[in-house]
Design a protein that fits this description.
Elements: H1 14-22, E1 46-52, H2 54-57, H3 73-82, E2 87-93, H4 99-111, H5 117-120, H6 129-134, H7 136-145, E3 148-152, H8 155-163, H9 170-198, E4 203-207, H10 215-218, H11 221-243, E5 250-253, H12 256-259, H13 263-266, E6 267-270, E7 276-279, H14 281-296, E8 318-321, E9 324-325, E10 333-335, E11 338-342, H15 343-350, E12 353-357, E13 362-367, E14 370-375, E15 380-383, E16 386-389, E17 395-399, E18 402-408, H16 409-415, E19 419-423, E20 428-432
Parallel strand pairs: 1-2, 1-3, 3-4, 4-5, 8-20
Antiparallel strand pairs: 6-7, 8-9, 10-11, 11-18, 12-13, 13-14, 14-15, 15-16, 17-18, 19-20
Helix pairs in contact: 3-14, 4-7, 4-9, 9-11
């Protein structure tokens, strides 16, 4: 993880009780509200499992609104996966987890045995911890199927020491830091070996530690904590290097460098004595960028989020089909919250064949053994001869001197067997075969 600095939450606080409403344990982060069509079609899916502490969970200070969903680095990483094909995420970030707790948890996962919550780590403030403890057999299966495993851990190992940096003599700070780094190294290496035993070939990315407090807040102690963060990076590098192979990569995600010198804009600093340090939304994006660049060599953003001002909300959402953002000759139309495309543009985008029947005012589209018939004005589409209800029917739209047939993109893509996911944060629909 990255710095979670303190044993952050007292058990039973309102924020943590409500956090259980915000993030369901072990659920794909493309939940029902943000997914136009689910997984489970038998197609290849790039599977991501996120393990670790509150940074993995996507926690931000003051997250008490039950209508707020965490949007951390893991959720962003899922979106990046959609650019490359069908992707799914299972997030097991545990609030307050230390490297010793991660070792205990991965040991139980490796064995496929259910353990009590206290067997993971005593006094964890996460209200979901009992549920997480019960899920170890399921997580073992998910890890075995994973393509990518991400981990943030270690901040809770040193939080109490870092908060005392102003009080301790330099020699005492260094001695205690070395002791904690030694424990961190031992615990994390053993935890990674547990994961590797379950998942022999998945890529494992371990984040290093960042120092979140800005220089203006720390004064002369800034250099001390920056030096400590550099030593954490070296410790993480030594662990990953000892386990890394070409066939089974274990790599350090160097997040710390992205925060150095710009901590104030990337980190929430809440509470007297700097009690609660967590990334801002921009900070979580920085972390996601590091992971995505390691996995895919890039971090992509859609054109929809670049638009600001009064017209932004009414503008068409971005549409990404098979990794390519659409730029069609005929502008997409946003109607009742759904994107509609002209018939020819849809056929070109998904690589399907089709024809228009003037007598029935219907379009027939064929792709991969599926046939979808969409009729102007009908609240049903036919998928291989079977009616399926849709929210908003196809319509004719005057474009210049022509009437263009506009079809509901998500309904058609789903009918053709495509995977359709919608990110409300990015205002982007991702469509993958």
């Amino acid at each position: 993880m990255l710095m979670a600095w303190k044993k952050l939450w007292a058990a039973g606080t309102s924020g943590m009780l409500l956090f259980t409403l915000l993030l369901g344990a072990g659920v794909e982060q493309a939940d029902a509200a943000d997914t136009a069509a689910g997984q489970g079609t038998g197609q290849d899916v790039f599977r991501i499992v996120a393990l670790g502490d509150s940074i993995t969970a996507g926690y931000e200070p003051g997250m008490t609104d039950p209508n707020t969903k965490p949007y951390g680095y893991a959720e962003r990483l899922l979106e990046q996966g959609w650019y490359h094909g069908r992707s799914a995420l299972n997030n097991y970030g545990i609030l307050g987890l230390t490297s010793a707790g991660l070792l205990n948890y991965t040991g139980a996962i490796k064995n496929g045995t259910v353990i009590p919550a206290e067997g993971i780590q005593a006094g964890l403030p996460d209200p979901r911890i009992s549920q997480f403890a019960q899920l170890t057999p399921q997580i073992k299966t998910e890890l075995a199927d994973a393509d990518l495993i991400t981990i943030t851990i270690g901040g809770n190992d040193v939080s109490s020491l870092f908060l005392k940096v102003k009080e301790l003599a330099s020699a005492d700070f260094e001695a205690q830091l070395e002791q904690r780094l030694t424990a961190y190294t031992t615990n994390v290496k053993a935890a990674l070996e547990n994961i590797r035993a379950v998942s022999p070939a998945a890529t494992i990315l371990l984040a290093d530690q960042y120092q979140p407090a800005p220089k203006i807040a720390l004064g002369a102690n800034y250099a001390t904590l920056m030096g400590a963060a550099e030593r954490f990076t070296a410790a993480a590098d030594s662990v990953t290097a000892s386990l890394n192979t070409a066939a089974a990569p274990v790599v350090t995600a160097h997040v710390a460098a992205r925060f150095a010198g710009v901590e104030a804009s990337l980190t929430h600093i809440i509470g007297a004595g700097a009690a609660d340090f967590h990334p801002t939304q921009l900070g979580y994006e920085k972390i996601a960028r590091v992971f995505a660049e390691l996995e895919w060599g890039e971090y992509r953003t859609p054109s929809a989020i670049a638009m600001t001002g009064a017209g932004a909300a009414a503008a068409p959402m971005s549409i990404v089909v098979k990794g390519v953002e659409l730029n069609t000759p005929n502008k997409p139309i946003l109607k009742n919250g759904q994107n509609f495309l002209a018939l020819k543009d849809i056929l070109n985008a998904v690589g399907a064949t089709g024809k228009w029947d003037n007598k029935t005012s219907s379009a027939t589209i064929v792709y991969g053994g599926r046939t979808v018939v969409i009729t102007i004005g009908s609240k049903f589409i036919k998928v291989n001869g079977v009616n399926q209800a849709i929210d908003t029917p196809a319509f004719l739209q005057k474009v210049g001197k022509e009437d263009k047939t506009y079809l509901p993109l998500a309904a058609l893509a789903t009918g053709l067997g495509f995977d359709v996911n919608y990110s409300s944060k990015l205002r982007t629909a991702f469509i993958n075969p």
